Amino acid sequence: MAKRRDIDGVLIFDKPLEVSSNNILQRIKYLYRANKAGHTGALDPLASGMLPICFGESTKMATMMLDSDKEYEVVVHFGVRTSTSDREGEIISENEVNLTLEQIQATIKEHFTGLIKQKPTIWSAIKYQGKPLYEYARKGIEVPVPTREINIYEIEILDWQQPFLKLRVYCSKGTYIRTLADDLGQVLGCGAHVKELRRTKIDGFENCQMVSIDTIEELAKDNNLEALDSLLLPLETPVNMYPALNLSDAQLLKLCLGMTLIYAFAEQNNREQFDQIEQLFRIYHHQYGFIGMAKNTAKNRLRGYRLRSNTEIIAKELKARGVSVDKADEHEKKLINQLRKS
């Protein structure tokens, strides 16, 4: 067996059907010979589509993608309601389907567009007292399931061949498509469940080509690690939606030492906005590249939030070159004073 290695980056993976997100993650981790890997938002075994896999330092940024909006294509089967709201569940009820396209369109417009309340299925991974709800469901234990507010930005009918309805759904985080299908069936009075589900997009990765397991296995078979690594996006890709700050040597040293930066936004055009709201920033340096994430903790104050694991090494190198934290805020403070006078 080849030796495990440290690699950083993001693979935009096309998850196949009939396999759990964790099982396929472990398979990809093995094929890449990676020491560390994680995924960003699980897909059920019956679902396929976009599943970003983060390696190494990118795993620190992975949780930030959980807030991203997502797009799905789903085939809803009307007339059959199941215990899990998908085709794998036990049939709860069966009803005749006598729906028109106009009925469905009107119901979607009235009940399933914009901000709506949704109560996820008990067969979900939402935690209750530290355990996912599906563990309680398997044991037949009833627990409270909180209703949450979600946003259905767009919902488009792609095909209608009774009793099957194909939809494109662009929605906010926390949306359960299975619950959406079940609720739609209940409102229409015939019941429904998810027959097919595919995640087609995650915000920030709209133009990324998804990679199949067949491609990865073929390259791994030839031990072509260089070709495998060429499929990875830069490690900071999951946080590209946040504004970037470029730090000086002294500023970087201060951040790596866990200290607070003052006037860090001086050269930003919208610096006053950053003074008023909490905001995450991508941190860069001309020599060390992407350093990690930082957050403004108060007016004109910036602290490290999720930094790369090599910050201690960076700090030692900067100190060895004579860099001092004393000069970290001088330039920015002078610039702020000049701007206030102008």
UniProtKB/TrEMBL annotation:
GO MF assignments: RNA binding; tRNA pseudouridine(55) synthase activity
Alphabetical keyword list: Isomerase, tRNA processing
InterPro entries to which the protein is assigned, alphabetical: PsdUridine_synth_cat_dom_sf, PsdUridine_synth_N, tRNA_psdUridine_synth_TruB, TruB_C
Gene Ontology BP term (one): mRNA pseudouridine synthesis
Gene3D superfamilies recorded: Pseudouridine synthase
Active site, UniProt feature: 44 (nucleophile)
Transmembrane regions listed in the UniProt entry: none
Any one Pfam family match given in the protein's UniProt record, by short name: TruB_C_2
Parts forming coiled coils: none
EC number(s) recorded for this UniProt protein: 5.4.99.25
Residue span, Pseudouridine synthase II N-terminal domain: 30-177
Reactions this protein catalyses: uridine(55) in tRNA = pseudouridine(55) in tRNA
Location of the tRNA pseudouridylate synthase B C-terminal domain: 178-239
Role this protein plays: Responsible for synthesis of pseudouridine from uracil-55 in the psi GC loop of transfer RNAs.
Protein family (similarity comment): Belongs to the pseudouridine synthase TruB family. Type 1 subfamily.
Entry-linked NCBIfam families: TruB
Listed name of the protein: tRNA pseudouridine synthase B
Organism field: Psittacicella hinzii
Lineage: Bacteria, Pseudomonadati, Pseudomonadota, Gammaproteobacteria, Pasteurellales
